[in-house]
């Protein structure tokens, strides 16, 4: 019964989290659930709260935003909404640390695997239904289905593929591992996402560099890499004309999309590069502030006063947007240069923890390195750590990986032991 419970618990937890993130409002239920879960974990841990010192940087960012919003008189609904984006990942980061004292890593890793797997299968199914429709499929239609999971899918692929190399019990075995790898490869290949391709490359480099025994590249490995490139190339070549042209155009415009330097009086530029346009508006707002606002931000509740939302289907009923694709500019507006500095310092702390302080030859080391680097890069294009509808489970796993520095050997963590007892 104990073995059955250990196998079934991750499946149930992963499916439950998939349903929650799929159907629950992105902030309210997650925030309430985070508070409740944190209280339970603290009770299981006898009221002990364990965190790294640099976690205070995240608390500092939150306080800057709240105090700034109150000081500048932001409408309370807007202030609370912005604060929820920042509180939720903070709470799940704290939960991840507490789970280190209560739950075996293999249970959490497998739960994360099943959560991402369910989301991946649903996405692939929706993609097939889209093409099964008799109507032509546009690039925008395809991206609306495929968007999301840019950081999670490559990470799960690496965890499934390389867990054994780091002395970790395999997440799956035999045919199950092979099938899941194929599903994840299909999801990444057909994503048409520059960010996901970047994250896959980043994860490959980090996991290979962190392997306890790195071997020279084999001919077979080079062959697999070459075949992978051929697969992506064939996908792009045989994709429907409109989809191929739009994707290739986005590839050529990658660096321009994160730039705010263009003529925004031309509507076509706004339509083709909305990210750059909203960044340019935020840049002007930041430059219009006085020294204190540039240093400490305008506070939570401050809207970015973009216009032309009708061109790209963005609602501007409130007079602007609350969050940008470029997370660094979002933070510049909300918490200023000091807040952005605290954000970077936090991830510098996690990188140092992973590289120098006791995570060697463990799966936690590449996991923490990857998530840290991924967030630092992704913040330029997909909002980053503080995001509307972000992924608390990834944050939780990230914190759990950092917390392994505190206790290298796992005996029988309390929560896992209680789960096993309940099944007897």
From TrEMBL:
Top-level taxonomic group: Bacteria
Keyword Membrane: yes
Keywords: Membrane, Transmembrane, Transmembrane helix
Transmembrane spans: 12-44, 56-76, 83-100, 112-132, 182-210, 222-240, 331-355, 367-387
Name of the featured protein: O-antigen polymerase
